[in-house]
Specification:
This protein is an alpha+beta fold. It contains six helices and five strands, in the order ββββαβααααα. The protein has a five-stranded antiparallel beta sheet. A hairpin with a 4-residue loop joins strand 2 and strand 3. Helix 2 packs across helix 4 and helix 3 packs across helix 4. The longest helix has about 30 residues. It is globular and about 55 Å long. It starts with 19 loop residues before the first strand and ends in a 24-residue tail after the last helix. Putative phospholipase. Belongs to the phospholipase B-like family.
Length: about 240
């Protein structure tokens, strides 16, 4: 079974080939929204970059000749884990590093979109106790995003900003791939700010208290934070 996407621009810019192997283990929340749940199984996908239209075609197959290919083993209800593996940069087509990273992100978003949405749905009320804080968080993330992209554009010869550009290209791909999956399956799509929210979870644990007003203007808000987030792989 395959789904095709016709031309429309989805893409980033260009410089040289990067080999990318991306195995990821995703631990996802058990409290997933029921209407997004998929039966356990392995889901395959391959992404093809179309230079003429600067767009992506995705098929639900594992084609090792594709510009990016991989699978998602949706075994969370069986083992408690989902396993995602993506490979990009190995096709005969010479692609810019940014595009390779964009395609890797695209497949990640496409294969895991339902779980991304469920994870956001579960995590949001744990982090955002006061809805008014979300506006401040969103403004901060938007400013940070603009500042980051400005530096990437203006400092192309700097290795740090060049590699930051690759990370941002992957994040853009993640959003667009999830959008494509939502469109195909008639799901509610995630916004870019929601994807940024998930990407910034570690930072939000510090950012949210700093944006939360206190009655006396003191730093007491930092005294205790009722939720932690571990970046280590613990099972």
């Amino acid at each position: 079974m395959s789904h095709r996407r016709s031309g429309r621009s989805l893409g980033p810019p260009a410089p040289q080939q990067l080999l990318l192997l991306l195995p990821l283990l995703l631990q996802l929340s058990w409290a997933a929204a029921q209407h997004h749940q998929k039966p356990p199984g392995i889901y395959y996908a391959t992404a093809y970059w179309l230079p003429a239209s600067k767009s992506v075609e995705v098929k639900n197959v594992l084609d090792k000749n594709g510009d990016a290919y991989g699978f998602y083993n949706d075994s969370i209800t069986v083992t408690g884990w989902g396993i995602l593996e993506i490979r990009a940069g190995y096709s005969s087509q010479i692609l810019a590093n940014e595009i390779i990273m964009f395609l890797a992100g695209y497949l990640e978003g496409y294969l895991t979109a339902p779980h991304m949405y469920d994870h956001f749905t579960n995590l949001y009320p744990q982090l955002i106790k006061n809805p008014s804080i979300m506006d401040k968080v969103q403004r901060f993330m938007e400013k940070q995003d603009m500042w980051t992209r400005k530096n990437i554009k203006e400092q192309k010869d700097d290795p740090f900003w060049r590699h930051t550009g690759y990370v941002m290209a992957q994040l853009d791909g993640l959003y667009v791939g999830a959008l494509k999956r939502a469109y195909i399956e008639n799901m509610k799509p995630m916004t870019m700010s929601q994807v940024q929210f998930l990407n910034a979870v570690g930072d939000l644990l510090d950012l949210i208290p700093s944006l939360s007003p206190t009655k006396d203007g003191s730093m007491n808000v930092f005294k205790r934070w009722d939720m932690g987030h571990c970046s280590a792989l613990i099972k």
